[in-house]
Amino acid sequence: MTVVKLRSGGLLVYAPVAPTPECVALMEELIAQHGEVKQIILPTVSGLEHKVYVGPFARRFKTAQVWVAPHQWSFPLNLPLSWLGLPGSRTKRLSETEAPLQGEFSYAILGPIDLGLGPFEEVAMLHHDSGTLLVTDTVLAIPEEPPAIVNTAPQALLFHARDHAGHRVQDSPANRIKGWKRIALFSFYFRPDRAQVTSLKTALKDAKDADDRTARGYFGLFPFQWQSDWETSFHALRRNGELIVAPILQALILNRAPKETLEWADRIAQWSFHRVIPCHLQSPVETTPAAFRQAFVFLEGKPTLPEADFSLLRQIGGGLDRLGITPKSK
């Protein structure tokens, strides 16, 4: 979620999160200083982590105008926006010609990209006064260390820091970072090349033989075997903190509409900004329009990430193509 102070006073909220007591308390601090929430933007049509909280957030801040990316959809039936929890009297579909505060912001809409069951669409916004580009999912930067919120419950970090089912891992900064790097690889590739999956028989045997199974989580199951050079995959993915397009989007989504995506990236690269705020992971990212555009060169046949790590994603994409669930990649 990004909160922007408006020239005339008040706030604009881009991609709101759940209005938990902690979130509302922080918002109230900003409201006391800068004025009420005047505009709420839902900049995507996919991703439950973005869509599901907009209605509750809008109901908490009752005077705000709500704008949504135009091609909203729901599954298995397309329902009216008011049925999806959005306040009907205050909700409008956003377009590049009908959008709030066009003197303060520029808008560029990517999509809709047809994915079969529903489209992918994203609204990028440039805040002129601060030289900041707001994006949702299209680009991100991966931090070297786990985000602070992940450290509040480090069990998952320590689980993935293990090298085998019986490995006892001490809670230390180094092991938390090790676990984070492996979580990042799983999150973006599902099955990176350097993580070999053990057989079910071996995994069950290792779990049975491991002590302290319950404390380790998943009843001791640890069906992975990491190769010794696994960390090279993480560094290749992270690219020293540069902006990247997530492998999942590269292999399964944006390659369905490469021409449209490149045209959208070209338009944004003409804007003047020195900072990007993605909705996920590292933020803000100090960068340039040229670096933003560079993240999309994979659509021009210039790979930026190791092809070996895309193996499972390519299999999934090929299966979707063969079954006709999604339009074929281009």
**How many strand elements?**
12
Mean pLDDT: 92
Q: Which descriptor suits the 3D outline?
A: globular
CATH class membership of the largest domain? Alpha Beta
Describe the strand arrangement of the main beta sheet, using strand numbers. 1-2-3-4-5
CATH architect. name of the largest domain? 4-Layer Sandwich
Give the distance, in angstroms, between the N- and C-terminal Cα atoms: 32 Å
| H/E topology pattern | EEHEHHEEEEEHHHEHHEHHHEEHH
Rg (C-alpha, Å)? 22 Å
Assembly state (oligomeric): single chain
Q: Which secondary-structure class do the elements indicate?
A: alpha/beta
Number of helices: 13
Low-confidence stretches: none
CATH topology of the largest domain: Metallo-beta-lactamase, Chain A
Number of domains: 2
